[in-house]
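Reading a protein record of the kind used here takes little practice once its layout is understood. The reader may check this reading against the record printed directly beneath this paragraph.
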Amino acid sequence: MQRWRGLGDLPGGWGRCAVTIGVFDGVHRGHQALIRRTVAAAAERGVPSVVLTFDPHPSEVIRPGSHPAQLTTLRRKAELVEGLGVDVFAVLPFTLELSRLPAGDFVHEVLVDKLHAAVVIVGQNFTFGHMGAGDIELLRTLGRRFGFAAQGAELQGRSLSGELPDQTDADQTDTGQTDSDITFSSTYVRSCIDAGDMAAAADALGRPHRLEGIVVRGAGRGHDLGYPTANLSTPRYAAVPADGVYSCWFTRSSDPGKRLRAAVSVGTNPTFSGRERTVEAFVLDVDEDFYGQHVAVDFVVKLRDQVRFSTSAALVEQIDDDVVATRRVLGED
């Protein structure tokens, strides 16, 4: 998969393509369905498939301070998109100038002049251009004028009975109608993570929610208790789950194929009157200092809330139980 930053220097001889557009934070199941539809449309036409996304998040540019919790880093987003068979992952730097571009100019300058789109596939709730003035109907009208097809896809979700309708969501962002009781969207996934409901988040994402970061030095209390932890320094806007203890899979970027079981604490360490919120992973059955390594933590299930213990011994006894529970949830070797 090719990865582009901006559209200033497209490959020589670039022809037509199939394009889908969105922030795609989380690359959840609705995004996946939309991207697969774009890949299929590209194959039917014998042209490359392009996922066009934006960085930084448009909300932060338009309304500084409003950046939503980030479900996926840009690098992780590219990895997930590549796994869906996309030919090009194109990142358009989102600026105030771009936000003020009229809808018609966005289509002409980006989709027609630069990408030479043959078909553009977006969610039915897709908006674009200055103040979100453009919608799917305008896109269809401009498509007829400029010679590309525009397709709108319905939202994807799940009924409370568990049925998964065959619909898609471009997350532009998180509104629209669906026959489902639950609509899969980045906003919905964030709400699940914020509540510590990792099973619901995984259902919408199609995989466990992941936090990535560099392991940094902590206070060293875990080592003193017999449970040394890897303390993650996470990206600024990372979607950190609700305070509590979780069963997780732990992987190192240097060895992504090897998953390790971990009991992960998220919170302020109330037993020790902590104030700073941390993410600390006790990796089972591994005697290694992960300091300085880039790692990923996939949250499978929340075991319990954070609790303030009266003694260190009581805390250690609870951690013993957390480790046993993690083995039960994730399975033995």
Remarks:
- Residues 144 and 150 are 9 Å apart (CA to CA).
- The chain has two domains: 2-205, 209-330.
